[in-house]
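Minutes, structural biology subgroup

Action item carried over from last meeting: produce the structure token record for Photosystem II protein M (Hydnocarpus borneensis). EB confirmed the sequence was re-checked against the source entry. Recorded below for completeness.
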Amino acid sequence: VPTAFLLIIYVKTVSQSD
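Output recorded by EB:
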């Protein structure tokens, strides 16, 4: 799994956590 993909999921998770 590309690291970029994991980064996107991480950012999306943080955004939803807001």
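Discussion: The chain has a mean pLDDT of 90.
Next step: EB to file the record with the rest of the batch.
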